[in-house]
Every structure is written in C-alpha cells, then in structure tokens.
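FORM 7B - TANDEM STRUCTURE REPORT

SECTION 1: FIRST PROTEIN
SEQUENCE AND TOKENS:
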Amino acid sequence: MGLTVFADQVRFAERTRSNAAHLRFLMTQLEGLLAVEAPARGRRTGLVEALHDIAQRAHRRSLVVLLSDMLDDQDREAEVFDALQHLRFNKHDIILFHVTDRKRELDLDLEDRPYTFVDVETGEQVKAHPAEVREAYRTAMAERWHRLKLKCGQYRIDLVEADINAGFEPLLLEFLTKRAKLY
C-alpha cells in the first residue's frame, strides 16, 4: 500500500510497500495529518497535479483509490479527466469514491431560513434561502452526477457514491462484495 495526501499541493507521498511495519507507518502519518490539518480555506485543491504526480511515481500497475468530492471547477473537468486518463494509460485500476454529505450537499435538505453559503476553496459567498433555490440546485447536482458517471464509464473508472453519513463499513462491504463477483 502507498499513500498520497494532497490539498493545494502534495502534503505527503509514500511509495508502495507490502509489509506490516509500512502499514503502521502510513496509519501513523494519516493520524498526524488529521490532527494537524485545518480546512484549506481560500486554496484550490491541486487534484490535477496530484494525479499526474501519482501517475509519474507509480511504476507498477496499481489500484488507485481516490476519495474526493469532485467539486473542482467545471472548467477544470477536462484537465481532471486527462489526469485520470494518464493513470489509466499507465494501466492503473482506478476507483473514485465520490464523497458527499447527501442530505446537505446533494438534496439541500436544510432548515427553512436564509443561509450564507461559502466556497471553502475560493471564499466566495452567496446568500440564499434553500426553499427558493432547492429545485434548481438539485437539478444541477443531478446533471453533474450524470456527467461524472458518464465520464467515469468512458474512462473505465469505478465510481462509488460515498455518503459520509452512512459510514465507511457498509459502503466498503457493498463495494468489495460487488467487485469480488466481477473477478
């Protein structure tokens, strides 16, 4: 197992090794990063750069597991999929766990009162009442999900919707069971 953690730039990168000491080292590094890292407010996520970096460093065919909300600019969508294609070209198998808070981020299921929505990467703010924008928002998010699904299918990338409220155990169990049946 190897690990790359990134935000606006690669924060930690460790090559693949297959021993218990290496796994313990990676877990310790993750715990340390989680304890120190604050949200990356005002910084763009360097997804494209990180994916190209992984493609350059991973020389053996690997399983690349990406956990992301995929909320990068639509303008950069082509660049993101070019970077994913770089991984596919190198014969890597890719699984994209699309991490969301379904209730809040996809369904916009919020209390009936005005909110100030803040983009955590750019700091841009929008004031809105959920009831007034809910239908248009849900439609836009459904179109975005459909586009993501089509692109992942086109590039032969496994796409898994990962709702943070569901927990990781049922999600992984379902996914691994499904994947085991395919092979």
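SECTION 2: SECOND PROTEIN
SEQUENCE AND TOKENS:
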Amino acid sequence: MKRFIIILVTLTTLPSVSQQSITLEECYSLVTKNYPLAKQIQLFENQNQIDSEVISKAKLPQIQLDAQATYQSDVIEIPVPNTNIKPLNKDQYRATLSVNQLIYNGGATDATLNVKEAQTKTKQKQVDVNLYQLKQQINQLYFSILLSQETKLLLEAKQAQLQAKLKEVQSGIKYGVILPASDKVLEAELLKLGQQFIEVESNKTALIETLSSIIGQSINNETTFQSPLIVTPLETEINRPELDLFQLKKDEIAQSETLISKQNAPKLLGFATGGYGNPGLNMLDNSFQTFYTVGLKLNWNVFDWNSNKKQRQSLAINKEIVDSETETFKLNTNIELNQQQKEINKIEGFIVSDLEIINLRKEVLKSADSQLKNGVITSSAYITELTNLYEDKNTLVRHKIQLQLAKANYNVIKGQ
C-alpha cells in the first residue's frame, strides 16, 4: 500500500515539471535578482547608511576625557620674602572632561552626506550596467535553446515521414514492385536520425545548464521555452543604463563641488571643560581643586594657497571626461544599431528565399515519392531529396531564430 502511495505521489508531481515554461523576459528579470553581482546593490546601500551615520555624528556633542600625572624638575616660585605662599608641588595631577559642540560649519556636514549618497547611487548604477550587459549572453543562450527545440520538432517530423515511407517500401518489396533491400536504406537513415536526436538533446542540456546558472533558476530539458514576439522600436532615442550612469557621475561631481565650496567656511564651536586636579586654575592654590571653563571657538582658514580653486578645476576636468565618455558611448551604440539593423535586413532577405527554395524542394520530393512507388528510383535517391528538403527547412528555422536573436540584440543595444 505504501509503495502504491509513493508511486501515485510521484506520478501526480511529474506533470508540474513537464509543464514548466519560461520566457525571455523572465530570464532578464531573474538575472537581475539572482546573479551574485546583484547582491552588491543592497550591500552598497547598507554601507552608505553606516557611513552616513558616522558622518552625522559630527553634529552631536563630542565628549573627551583626559587624565595626566606629571613630575616637574622645577615649578614657579614667587620671589617675595615673607609672603607665606607655598610653592607648587613638583608632582601635579589633572583629570578633565571636555565637551565640544559644532554650532556652524557652513553646511559641510550635509554636503559630505550628499557626496556619499551620490557615490552610492553611482556604484549601484554601475552594478545595473554590468547586469544589463548579461542580456546579450542570455539572448544567445535562450535562442540557441529555441533552435534546439525547433530542430527536434523537424527531426520528429522527418522521422515520422521516414517511418511511413518505410512501411510503404516494405509493402512494395513484398509485392515485388520495389527492389529488395530498399528498406535497409530507410532503416539506416532512421538510425542516423536517432544519433541526431541525441546530439540535439545533449547540446540543449548544456545550454540549459549554462542559462540556469546565470539566472539562478532551476530549469531542465522538460522546460518549455516560449518563443517571444519581438518588435524593434521605431524611435531613435537610446535608453541604456550607461547613460544614467554618466549622469550620476556628473551629479557626484556637482555634489563634490558643493562640498569643496564649503570647506573654507568658518567653523563655530561651543566648548565646556570641567576638571579636578592639583593645581587647579588658581596656580597659587597648592591643593586639589575642581574647575571649569566654557566658551566659543571660531576656526576660519582664510588662505589655503589656492588649494580649493585647484580642486574645483580638477572636478571641471572630470566633468569634461564624463561628457567625452557619454559622446563616445552614444556614437559606438549608434554604430552597433546600424550594423544590427543591416543584419536584420539580411536575414529577412534570406527567409524570403528560404520559403521559395522549400516550395521547390517539396515539388521535387513529391515527384521522387511517385518515382519511388513506381520503382523508377531507389530509396537512396528518395532519401537524398527528403534530406535536402529538411535541411532547407532547418535553414529556414535557423534563419527565423537568428532573426529573433538579431531583433532581441537590437533592443538590448538600444536599451528597450
């Protein structure tokens, strides 16, 4: 009974595997989620939060505890006789607690936070760019798998036609219409088809395993790969993530310029120090005392030997470099698009001629079929024409898959 239940459960779960399907868009989506590099987007965000917290601490009071014990070779003495003022001890002790509060620094802290945020966005977008560049690799694998699927269907159709023809030939041999041993040629061709099935299935398995590793999704030979309907866009505008990356780099430069402009701003701090020591602030009192001081401190770097100006000039050069990279990228992308469009036009022309060739091959095979039935030609001649037809059909399928691949690559190059 237990064995029956196990078999029943196995049978009920098998159809879910065989019915599994996947699309090209799903592969795109999965690679952005599951590829190991994708983890860096969240890691950069976490890093930015930690760094921002550290930078923001500058707005909080800074507390410092100091303690010291010293022995001096000499101390201050008052050279007035009969004053009864005891000289200071040569061993002195002091412990202080100081608090410094930043009141104003020209917005340098907020500017630093903005630079850090801009740097994080640039790093995250670079990850997006790297993930986007995997799309063409996914295209190559996905459409190669589709080609394997279509090739298998053609082989199955050819196999069915050969099996049907084998029965006809065997019947013809039986009644003496067709030469003996003609069926052996067909049987040999069927064995060759078996080898082709194995080769196609093996290639498909290798492609699926590679694709599965890249997208981080478990798929197998039973998975159905949906044939996408790909339409190339009519608009000419490029919409690649690299362009967003270039803009983010310029935003980062702009934030850095803002930070540099605030570096020489005056800094105003409030401070308070409390302590206990011997001596205290009253140097004439040779005993342990408590003491405190409070006040304001202004720090202003009035002249920096044009360091600030030179930094801004360097950032301006960086901005020109980014502009140059953007123009170069657009130029190269448009060249790629032009080449890809020519590839699409070429393959479309091939498909038109493929259809004409197949129609002619069908007529030739029809004639060969009639001649074989009447014993005019041998099975070998018939197989030659049948093979020619299916090779041309396979060429048509390959060109159709190549056309889909070319269009998919066109869209990836364009950023659609």
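SECTION 3: OBSERVATIONS ON SECOND PROTEIN
Strands lie at 21-22, 62-71, 91-104, 224-225, 267-278, 289-299.
The mean pLDDT is 89.

SECTION 4: SIGNATURE
Preparer initials: ____
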